[in-house]
Amino acid sequence: MAIKDITLGQYFPGESAVHSLDPRTKLIGTVIFIASLFVVDSFGGFAVCALCLLAVVKLSGVPLRFLMRGLRAVLILIIFTAAINLFMTPGVEVWRLGFIKVTEEGIYRSAFMAIRLVLLILGSSMLTLTTKPVTLTDGLERLFRPFGKLGLPAHELAMMMTIALRFIPTLLDETDRIMKAQMARGADFESGNLRERARGLIPLLVPLFVSAFRIAADLAMAMEARCYRGGEGRTRMNAVEFGKGDYAAFALCAMMLAFAILSRKLNWF
Amino acid sequence: MQIRVESLSHIYAEGMPFETVALEDINFTIESGSLTGIIGHTGSGKSTLMMHISGLIKPSSGRVYAGGTQIGLKTKESREAARKIGIVFQYPEYQLFEETVLKDVSFGPKNFGFSPQECEEKAKKALELVGIDPDEKGKFSPFELSGGEKRRVAIAGVLATEPEVLILDEPTAGLDPRGHREILKIIEQIRRLHKPTILLVSHNMDDIAAMADQVLVIDGGRLAMDGTAAEVFARREELASMGLGLPSTSSLLSALAARGMEIRTDIFDEDEAAREIARALRQD
Ligand SMILES: Nc1ncnc2c1ncn2[C@@H]1O[C@H](COP(=O)(O)OP(=O)(O)O)[C@@H](O)[C@H]1O
Ligand SMILES: [Mg+2]
Q1: pLDDT interval class at B28 (50, 70, 90)
Q2: Does residue B187 form part of some domain?
Q3: Taking 70 as the threshold, does the pLDDT of residue A4 lie above it?
Q4: Has residue A61 got a pLDDT over 70?
Q5: Per the domain annotation, does B270 fall within a domain?
Q6: Which residues from chain B sit within 8 angstroms of residue A210, using beta carbons?
């Protein structure tokens, strides 16, 4: 089933140095990486960012081929962005067919934007590939906890995200199961016009909602039975602390950002 | 319809880091009109095998034939043949969705292009077959019914398509003893009235021993045994090593034999077992 092929946001199990970093480090590191991509204004700068990313990928043990798969889902977006930039940028004309024209600036910009987008997606995939969803939301909660004084319910938001992430695979499995059960009764999810297709989803969506509510009710009961009553005074089973690796990672990120700013100042190609 | 499975293998998430070999080189033949029991530990691949036989998933390699036609291809013949195979999934009550019981059971025939009248007729017949009065409960919402009734309505939803091959994947899982007996009665009834080829996946060895003409044992994605109930349940140690037990009668008789009693162990009927024990006791 095509549903199973989605790799974006997936976790790739492992025990590398990257996997065992504090989730906060990886979150901040990803933000710095993305910031660097937007600071950089030259191909040379991208090369530095790409090298840093490659180092992290190598260290993490995630196969490059697996990482690249994540791009497939957003290939259309990349092509679309590249095409718009290629045809819509005014400047010195190099090629023309009717009203379609390609300019020197267009080629440059389209390559530039495509590289930025690809690096952006690969960089953020590395975050989810090397961090368990639960650890990730844990990191988010701890990053946002200081804002609790301003009324941000950090724990509740993180708990909601944790639960949502935890049940995505469950609901995907359930979807797969119900689809097959209805297909066995002759349901067709693949042909017909838009209206027919939308109607055809009812036999899938109704049972799916029923399941989702059942799961939610069960979970709420199970949480209550274990005396869950919000974030106040809760301690953690696996408390994460910054270690040597985290400081090293921060140093690397800072260097990358410095390079990115420097490359802009020095006007590299 | 005869079912033939040839060197069937299935790998989930092939090429991914978490790929699972669910089935490996499975070969067997099932005769038309027979009831075949499929047993195996949880995760051994039974459900995957059943989905292949109903053409819902594609094999990684190998072929499945129903009545001589290969299943799971895009051709017209293959689709026609797949229509004659009905599958009742594990916990089928989670597939109910319509406003009324009757409409839900009509869903299958409607998809197969029958007229509204024919659909209703088939639905009513199917509901009667599972012991639900279509005039009384037909207008109910399926979500108002009891657990056992929901299960039976879901089974009727498959029966309404009048399958020549009926696959039942753990149809009694999670039911109370009464619900369990009702489902067994329905299976007997279907056999008597329509004589379809039935594949029954179950963890209940007593049911398998009582009903199956042929028993397939799946272990870790491989076909470990293929024979009559007597042949399969005679291999007690092997079954135990796969985490599978015996029917309660043979279990008792084997225990007696192990204590030195001269007794047959391949009896699956309670009365017959009682007579055999009495006979052995008189002999001692
Ligand atoms: N949709 C799926 N994706 C990945 N792996 C699966 C999927 N369905 C089943 N499996 C795996 O395949 C194996 C066989 O599963 P299944 O056919 O459901 O066994 P059984 O019905 O005997 O319990 C198990 O290891 C299971 O985890
Ligand atoms: Mg199963």
Answers
A1: very high
A2: yes
A3: no
A4: yes
A5: no
A6: 94, 143
Domain ranges of chain A: 3-160+239-266
CA gap A46, B71 in Å, rounded:
52
Report whether residue B45 contacts ligand 1, using a CB cutoff of 6 Å: yes
Total Cβ atoms within 10 A of residue B209: 24
Neighbours of A241 (CB within 10 A): 6
pLDDT score, position B92: 92
Domain that holds residue B38: 3-229
Q: Verify whether the Cβ–Cβ distance A183 to B56 is below 8 Å.
A: yes
Nearest-CA residue of chain B relative to A201? B97
User: Residue B59 to residues A198, B32, B50: CA-CA distances in angstroms?
Assistant: 29, 23, 12
Rounded to whole angstroms, the Cα distance separating B219 from B226 reads: 12
Please give the DSSP secondary-structure letter assigned to residue B263: -
Distance (Å) from CA B228 to ligand 2 centroid: 22
In terms of CA atoms, which chain A residue is nearest residue B88? A181
Q: Which of B91, B95, B158 to mutate to test the interface with A (most CBs of A within 10 A)?
A: B95
Per the structure block, which two tokens stand in for A172? Answer: 């995907």
Alpha-carbon span B122 to B21, nearest angstrom: 39
Q: Is B81 exposed, middle or buried (0-12, 13-18, 19+ CB in 10 A)?
A: buried
Q: Which amino acid is at B145?
A: L
- Interface predicted TM-score of the whole assembly (ipTM), two decimals: 0.87
Q: What is the pLDDT of residues B43-92, one digit of tens each?
A: 999 999 999 999 999 999 999 999 989 998 888 898 889 889 999 999 99
CB atoms within 10 A of CB B48: 21
The number of domains in chain B is 1
Task: Verify whether the Cβ–Cβ distance A210 to B143 is below 8 Å.
Answer: yes
What is the domain-level CATH number for residue B74? 3.40.50.300
Question: What pLDDT score was predicted for residue A1?
Answer: 36
Instruction: Determine what percent of chain B is predicted with pLDDT higher than 90.
Output: 74
Asked if the structure places residue B147 within a domain, the reply is yes
In chain B, the largest separation of any two C-alpha atoms, in whole Å, equals 68
In this structure, the residue with its CA closest to atom 14 of ligand 1 is: B45
Distance in Å, alpha carbon of A202 to nearest chain B alpha carbon: 8
A203 to chain B, any CB pair closer than 8 A? The answer is yes
pLDDT band at A268 (very low <50, low <70, confident <90, very high): low
Over its C-alpha atoms, chain B yields an Rg (Å, rounded) of 20
Q: What is the pLDDT of residues A161-201, one digit of tens each?
A: 888 877 888 888 899 999 999 999 988 887 778 888 888 88
**DSSP assignment of chain A:** -GGGG--TT------STTTTS-HHHHHHHHHHHHHHHHH--SHHHHHHHHHHHHHHHHHHT--HHHHHHHHHTTHHHHHHHHHHHHHH--SSEEEEETTEEEEHHHHHHHHHHHHHHHHHHHHHHHHHHHS-HHHHHHHHHHHHGGGGGGT--HHHHHHHHHHHHHHHHHHHHHHHHHHHHHHHTT--SS-S-HHHHHHHTHHHHHHHHHHHHHHHHHHHHHHHHTT---STT---SS-----HHHHHHHHHHHHHHHHHHHHHHTT--
Ligand 1 centroid vs B218 CA: distance in angstroms?
13
